[in-house]
Amino acid sequence: MSLNLVSSAEWGVEYEYTTETLSGGVTKRTKARKTKENVRTLTGIFTLGISEIVGEHRVESYEYYYGSDYLGETKNAAADAANKKGVALFNEKNFEEAEKLFNAAYRTCETGYTSEALFKNNITIAQNAAEAQKAAEAQKAAEAQRAAEAQRTVEQERIAEKKAAEAREHAWREKAQRAGELQRVAEKRAADAERNTVETQRIVEACRQQAQRANERQIAAEKKAAEAEKKAAETEKRAVEAQTAAEKKQEETENTAVEAQREAEKKE
User: Fold this and answer.
1) Could you tell me the mean pLDDT of each successive run of 10 residues in the chain, 268 residues long?
2) Residues 205 and 170 in one domain
3) Which stretches of sequence are listed as region Disordered (predicted)?
4) Helices 75-91, 116-195: inter-axial angle, 10-degree rounding
5) By the 8 A CB rule, do 77 and 65 touch?
6) Is residue 114 classed as helix, strand or coil in its secondary structure?
7) What angle do CA 36, 38, 44 make, to 5 degrees?
8) Per the domain annotation, does 147 fall within a domain?
9) Count of domains forming the chain
């Protein structure tokens, strides 16, 4: 509480200003107008002094503020104004500030005021709305974070794909460069071969003739080998036939001997 005394130009008038912060955050400003009434009584010509009877009259007026906003001159009027401002903030979805104003209205009004229960109920409604708003904002923040993470993932994939594309392009360029070098080498060799066309053709023709002669010799050798194989087969066949005839004759001789043996045994 602060106190400030200010003298007035009026004779015997003095103003007193008091500022007090109430429990709900409302500021109460008190303006007191004080006047003095002086009565002088003379007790005669031979008075020894002057007696003064002094009386003081005090009138107070009040103003209520929430911050710099004027609310009214009485507690209940200030409470109604604070509640009205709270409703406006509530409609703007500023639930936390609305709760503060509803609380200011409830704490400022006179006990038993007809709107006291309304102010208290508005506090509860604003608290619930503020909590729901915080939950929604938290969910929104979580969704935003997930979206940001998804965006980062997409960005990372895009960067990775870009790097892969750059690597493929680099590899293609190196391959093209090597292919170009090989092409130049091939062209050089082709040019060299073209310059040596006659010699190359001569060598090719000589190789062809040599191959042809070798082929002819191979054919002749294969023919001789076939004839030799045929003769060997015939010789082997005759040898088999001779062996078979000898074995047959041997068998006949053995049979004749056995028969003669039997005849001799019979005579005995």
Assistant:
1) 56 84 94 72 42 66 95 96 97 96 97 96 97 94 90 88 92 88 86 76 85 90 89 90 91 89 83
2) no
3) 209-268
4) 30
5) no
6) coil
7) 170
8) yes
9) 3
* Strand 2-7 with 13-21, pairing: antiparallel
pLDDT for position 39: 44
**Rounded Cα distance, 23 and 106, in Å:** 10
Is residue 32 classed as helix, strand or coil in its secondary structure? strand
Domain of 6, CATH number, reads 3.10.450
Distance CA 222, CA 228 (A): 10
69: Cβ contacts below 8 Å, ≥ 6 apart:
85
> Which domain, by its residues, includes 216?
196-260
What residues contact 200, with CB distance under 8 A and at least 6 apart?
A: 193
Residue 189 placed within a domain? no
- Give the integer Cα–Cα distance in Å for 106 and 116: 6
Q: Are residues 59 and 80 in the same domain?
A: no
